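Input:
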Amino acid sequence: MTNPVLVEVIRGGMVESRHRGAVAVVDTAGAAVLALGDVAQPVFPRSAIKALQAMPLVESGAADRYGLSDDELALACASHGGEPAHVDGVARMLAKAGLDPTALRCGAHWPLSQPAAFALAQKTGAPSALHNNCSGKHAGFLCLACAMGVDHADYWRPEHEVQREVRAVLENLSGAALERPAIDGCSVPTWPIPLQNLAQAFARFGTGSGLLPARARAAARLREVCAQNPWYVAGTGRFCTEVTKLLGARVFVKTGAEGMFCGALPDLGLGIAIKCDDGAGRASEAIMAAVIARFVPLAEGERPALSRFRAPTLRNWNGFEVGMLRVTEALG
Amino acid sequence: MTNPVLVEVIRGGMVESRHRGAVAVVDTAGAAVLALGDVAQPVFPRSAIKALQAMPLVESGAADRYGLSDDELALACASHGGEPAHVDGVARMLAKAGLDPTALRCGAHWPLSQPAAFALAQKTGAPSALHNNCSGKHAGFLCLACAMGVDHADYWRPEHEVQREVRAVLENLSGAALERPAIDGCSVPTWPIPLQNLAQAFARFGTGSGLLPARARAAARLREVCAQNPWYVAGTGRFCTEVTKLLGARVFVKTGAEGMFCGALPDLGLGIAIKCDDGAGRASEAIMAAVIARFVPLAEGERPALSRFRAPTLRNWNGFEVGMLRVTEALG
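Output:
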């Protein structure tokens, strides 16, 4: 099946590039509200499910045992920009479990935030694992390992107790059996999950529907800390942060590598999973904004604010308007 | 027409993302040697035709009048990394025409080279127009304007004498009538040209076939300076530089924004034009490497060296091998 073109890149009135993809929006029973393209295809959810990967941290009581604050819990769900307060927060999480940054196994990369990267280059000349956008998730895994009383050294391996807990939550929420994990950018397993099952997982995450009470409470708490601390989930000027600042707890959105985007619309009882075929983040962002604009009742002022993401203007190095991204009719 | 999948992104043995596109390889008569996808579609060639845009600079005698060196002429064809010697070379080009960097109208952006960007951030805190990857092309346009004795202030506008000269060369080489320019990232016009006509332009650029003698000589000189100075056409570790270092004057390759790639195989009399539908540079690079591997007789050692670009291994932040790019059977 060939997925439909969902986003066109316009330059000078002509289509310059095009992005195909699939979109699944489902209710808590898993019934399709919107299905574009092959929603049965298994996809690697990558970082789009970090909030689900953080569920055992909360549900187990580990987060409370170590007194993790709301912004620290948001960091456990984050692809953060490596800005100073992100890095400091992750270091605090580790310290609360009696660990230091050497326990992190996510690998090092320069901060996603360009100002943060420049400042770091000037200060130390090299990034550490704390600056990895996944370091908060890893710190959460380490807190869970410590609270479980297991050796934390191999917390990233698929067979480790921590990843087995994560897998069980993902299977419960998605209703899919998870097999044959690949290795994510930060070395933890990423399991292929059909797109419609991912959407179902987020419908449940967004509502607690069908979940045991402790799990539903963990989901509600993670949604709340992300809604209240959107800067900690991404960073300055980023899509997830800005859209959450705009719409608050009415939406939960989380980006992932290779054109993944997941989300929940709790008031509507809907879950969303988006995969851009070619892996383009610019397209998955426009698609997510279009899905939100289609389903969420928006107040005056919210619609134009969301348009900045749904149909961004493209400007060149002189600031001239040279084109735009445009979602296609398939997205309505 | 739906273009075929040309490149797959593999993770853990599964296809994670896919890139569609079109490829035209034609001979000097414009006959198709390879046609994948819609090769009649007009595309914006972007920076992939910088060498063609530099033709009037040489053909007019302006390059000789100002005594431009080979590396400076290579910079006129470059999407350079903003590394120190790139920036110095562009400043020299301007000085030779009696100008300074304030004449550049390409806009400023941080060097494409990360080390150069970090060093610049530390030194001055902001990039200038010299660091724009197109600054060499713009310096070439300015030299041409000065040599023509026309006001250089608006050299970037479609109606300016410089851009009219460029357009005439593009129409001559491509055999296409150019209309309705859009605005490129550096503000000069980018005209839509059918992919197969772009390939034909590069077959002529690569051989001089069908061109008047002065134009054929200009093409040969630009090919030679790029083959001899590949670092000046891109920069440290970049595809165009590394592939040219590997194969020398047997290939001419030049990348452009939004998944464009053009090239010539002079010994074989072939021109190449590639457009990745979604604009991904990682895919257009793999496609170009695959086209070269298919047509160019390679010596022992050259094939594995080229494989690094045709089928690059994907590693994560810990250096673990997590997948690869794979060109599909369509590319042979």
